[in-house]
Specification:
heterodimer, A: 153 residues, mainly alpha, B: 513 residues, 1% strand
């Protein structure tokens, strides 16, 4: 990402977050408001500074890239969407079933190892079973850590 | 002295050796798993100690505590995910070491530094418990406030490349930490109409999101087949020992002392100690720009400090009955359940138990070397598993780890949201380390600021008077100012050096001519 774009984007992000918290601070007063207000003001000023800096850099033509490493956007989108869907279905299906579906589905979709679909499915299924067993034995049986329960299971 | 001999003899009992080994192994595994903390590990095992005599039970709890604090560094080095919040600073140099194919150096450094820190903390506990406990009592609202601000000043050193973005990231972290019930007035704030947010943003899920889930997104987005290349270097152990005993010895000792002192203060734990020690190690180093690129010094500072916290946190617990950390509070509960009343008399009335427990901390730290090396060797196998499987597995472990903290799906969503925030921040150059620091220190800063405001109102003076009335607070203010000035001083030094080179070069050229 270009340095000027990164500055403007980060400045805007800081301003948005400061704005969201400012909008929520209406009913607060006294010592409850003191600390957040100091931070909101600081962030607002900093956000404006970063936006200004980015614009200035853009005008001067300073467009040195911050990060040249290529990003597989489709893979990032897929695992992000998968993670959101996974967390959303846990309260319905329960932790173990949702995890099994997520592990198998994601490893099928994201696996970069060569080979046929059948081979991929076998590897994904084996991985799913091993990890689910590890979690069940390690967390539930040995440590007694509770897992989220679902409406159905 | 009459208790020390019998205490050492207790340690050689087969049951106690077994409990130390089991406690350490379990502790290291619990610490390495994101979301499972030392507090959780110790608390889970407290009921098991009811079936044992008090001495054996305490030995096992102490072993779990030490193991878990060290264990957090394994995941910090291997997958850039601090297993416990006190390993956040370990990721700064541990992860770059792993990326450079030198994971074994990072893991061995963290192990040996942890052992060193643990032993120094225990030495302080053994010989200086009473005076240090009295010193800890001097810390009130203003002192704690400035201690946190001193910790926060790390951002200036940490993000010296882009200080504005570092400071804004820290402010974002602090603002996020204000979500939930206000610690001073008890008023719910910033819930955005979603009632469960009254519970606030828990530190551990936020850390898992910022470091673990965002890392998953980074790794999946890269075209790498494995997390990092791993080239086991023959003689890595010797290399680390030479480095730690040579150029890092002052760093190790300073960090261990910082860890012990911070550990004594109730509320301030390994996370603050490791960050302050990392900051100090960087400030005192001749080449501070190397920090963050994978240097042994960074890992050594963070890990020796967080393990030294153990001895420090046990000082006020044993001498005053005031726990210096959450884990010390759980151990205190176990002591009380056994009918043992902490206080200065614990060293005389139940001296056998107290000294056996203290001596067991030495033994646990020494046993940690073989056990830690063995487990580290097993954990490096993670680097030979295909990246896709590791990344998906981390998501599942992050979910269960974050849920386990409060049995709440809110914490799982916090992981996801902070994961995206961390990923986005990294893309635009905001500093996730500074953000984490803000989230960790925020509640303590606000609570102590509130105390100072109340104190000033009660005394009819201003807050400034409250801030400046204690010599400890003034010392911390001076240290904070020095810390903030460090990047400017370093920049000035670098410019002078560059200037010197520019002047020297023409001379050399003329000589050649």
């Amino acid at each position: 990402m270009r340095s000027s774009v990164a500055d403007i984007t980060s400045g805007l992000a800081v301003l948005v977050i400061a704005g969201m918290f400012h909008a929520q601070s209406g009913d607060l007063e006294g010592v409850s408001l003191l600390f957040p207000r100091m931070l909101i003001i600081f962030m607002a000023l900093g956000g404006i500074y970063l936006c200004g800096l980015g614009l200035l850099k853009g005008r001067k033509g300073e467009q040195a890239p911050q990060d040249d490493e290529p990003v597989a956007v489709s893979r990032v989108v897929m695992i992000s969407a998968g993670a959101i869907a996974y967390v959303a279905i846990i309260p319905v299906l329960g932790f173990y079933l949702a995890s099994a579906l997520y592990l198998f589905g994601m490893s099928m979709v994201l696996s970069d190892a060569g080979g046929s679909t059948r081979k991929k499915a076998v590897a994904s299924a084996a991985f799913t079973v091993v990890l689910c067993l590890f979690v069940w034995i390690g967390f539930a049986m040995l440590l007694g850590v509770p897992t989220p329960e679902g409406m159905l299971f | 002295m009459e208790f020390i001999g019998p205490a050492i003899m207790h340690l050689f009992e087969p049951l106690n050796i077994l409990l130390m080994v089991a406690g350490l192994t379990g502790g290291i595994i619990v610490g390495a798993l994101p979301g499972l903390t030392a507090t959780m590990g110790v608390a889970l095992m407290v009921p098991a100690t009811f079936a044992m005599d008090a001495t054996s039970g305490l030995i096992m709890l102490g072993a779990i505590y030490a193991g878990a604090i060290y264990g957090g560094s394994n995941s910090a080095c291997l997958i850039c995910t601090p297993g416990t919040p006190s390993s956040v600073a370990t990721t700064f140099d541990g992860w770059p070491l792993c990326q450079a194919g030198r994971a074994d150096i990072g893991l061995i450094t963290s192990l040996l530094a942890s052992v060193f820190g643990g032993i120094v903390g225990t030495v302080f506990l053994l010989f200086l418990a009473a005076p240090l406990a009295r010193f800890a009592l001097q810390f009130g609202g203003p002192e704690n406030f400035w201690l946190c601000i001193f910790g926060l000043s790390t951002i200036a050193v940490m993000s010296s490349g882009n200080m504005v973005k570092g400071l804004l990231s820290g402010a974002m972290g602090l603002l996020v930490s204000t979500v939930g019930i206000d610690p001073n007035a008890g008023v719910p704030r910033f819930t955005f109409g979603y009632y469960p947010l009254v519970q606030g943003v828990e530190v551990i899920p936020a850390m898992i999101g910022l470091f673990s889930f965002s890392q998953v997104l980074y790794l999946i987005g890269s075209y790498k087949p494995f997390i990092a290349e791993y080239r086991p270097a023959p003689g890595a152990f010797g290399e680390v020992v030479r480095a730690l005993a040579g150029r890092c010895k002052v760093n190790l000792m300073r960090s261990s002392i910082i860890g012990t002192l911070v550990g004594m203060l109730p509320g301030a734990g390994g996370e603050i100690a490791s960050i302050i020690s990392y900051n100090e190690a960087k400030r005192w180093d001749k080449n501070p720009e190397r920090f963050g690129t994978g240097v042994i010094e960074g890992v050594a500072a963070s890990e020796s400090a967080n393990n030294a916290v153990i001895g420090g946190s046990l000082i006020p617990m044993l001498t005053l009955g005031i726990p210096g950390s959450a884990v010390a509070a759980v151990i205190l509960g176990a002591l009380l359940a056994k009918g043992i009343q902490p206080g200065f008399k614990v060293f005389t009335a139940t001296g056998d138990l107290a000294y056996t427990f203290i001596m067991s901390q030495f033994a646990v730290n020494l046993l940690m070397i073989p056990i830690g090396l063995l487990l580290a060797r097993i954990m490096t196998k993670l680097l030979s598993i295909r990246l896709t499987f590791v990344a998906i597995g981390i998501v599942v472990l992050s979910v269960i780890g974050s849920y386990a903290i409060r049995n709440s799906m809110l914490d799982v969503w916090i992981v996801i949201i902070f994961g995206f925030l961390g990923y986005f921040s990294g893309r635009v150059g905001l500093d996730t380390g500074a953000m984490a620091l803000g989230i960790i220190l925020g509640p303590m800063i606000e609570e102590n600021l509130g105390k100072c405001v109340h104190l000033s109102k009660a005394s009819g003076g201003s807050v400034i008077n409250v801030f400046l009335e204690s010599p400890i607070a003034v010392l911390l203010i001076v240290l904070t100012l020095l810390s903030l000035a460090t990047p400017f001083l370093l920049d000035w030094k670098r410019k002078r050096r560059d200037c010197g080179c520019d002047i020297a070069q023409p001379k050399e050229e003329s000589n050649h001519a």
